[in-house]
Each structure stands twice: as structure tokens, then as C-alpha cells.
Specification:
Helix content: 25-40%
Radius of gyration: 15 Å
Largest sheet: 5 strands, antiparallel
Number of domains: 1
Number of strands: 8
CATH class: Alpha Beta
Oligomer: single chain
């Protein structure tokens, strides 16, 4: 059984992009789907779709590459872990990698990117960073 669905999803995406695969399959959860929606908005992945097989749901992610065949994702890291949660206030969420990267934050208003959380003046748990 997987304890941390987000870290499993990030590892699968990271491994697939290193192998230059077109698609990868993730286990479904609402939190993973919310993180993927932000990745899609920010342009780190092409698209994702939710598929249901029997009782279980899966998410198929289409990865994005540049014109040279390199992955758009340079680094993908899990920040908050089950043994050590990391929380930040709204003032500490300004920019990541001078605006080139994104931090995904779980807030009371839902899962947001760091720039939206800073604009809405809400803090929360830092889930992962991508650039």
C-alpha cells in the first residue's frame, strides 16, 4: 500500500520524463488530480485524463518536451513528507527560482500554486516544487 500518493505520482512523472516516455500512468486521488491541474496550467505537462477500470481509477499523464526532445521539467521535488510537514505563511510564498519555478501549496482554499496563494494571502503546507 502506498502511504503518500503525491510522492508516488511525482516519482512516476520524474522517471517517465528521464526515460523520455510519452505517457505515464498514476494512481488516482483528488489531491494528485489537483496537482496535475496546476502542472497543466503552468505548462509542465501536455494533458492528463482520468480512466476507470473496474473499481479503480487511474490517471494517464501526457508529458511535454521541447523542440530538442528535452523534458520541460528540469526538477521535481517533494517538500512536505509524512515524517516532516513543512508549512509557510502567505508572506513566504513570493517567488520560487525567480518566477521560473512553481511551488504547489495545499491551503484552506484548495491546492494552489505559490503565486496564487501569495495573491490570495493564504499560506499552507508545501507539497512539491517544479521547475
Amino acid at each position: 500500500m502506498i502511504n503518500d500518493m503525491v510522492s508516488d505520482a511525482l516519482t512516476r512523472i520524474r522517471n517517465a520524463s528521464m526515460r523520455k516516455l510519452d505517457n505515464t500512468t498514476l494512481l488516482h486521488s483528488k489531491l494528485v488530480e489537483a496537482v496535475l491541474e496546476i502542472f497543466k496550467e503552468k505548462g509542465y505537462i501536455e494533458d492528463y485524463s482520468v480512466k476507470e477500470e473496474n473499481v479503480k481509477k487511474f490517471i494517464t499523464v501526457t508529458l511535454k518536451y521541447d523542440e530538442n526532445g528535452n523534458s520541460v521539467i528540469t526538477e521535481l521535488k517533494k517538500i512536505s513528507k509524512p515524517g516532516r510537514r513543512v508549512y509557510k505563511g502567505a508572506d513566504e510564498l513570493k517567488k520560487f527560482k525567480n518566477g521560473y519555478g512553481t511551488i504547489i501549496v495545499s491551503t484552506s482554499k484548495g491546492v494552489l500554486s505559490n503565486d496564487v496563494a501569495f495573491r490570495d494571502r493564504v499560506g499552507g503546507e508545501l507539497l512539491c516544487s517544479i521547475w
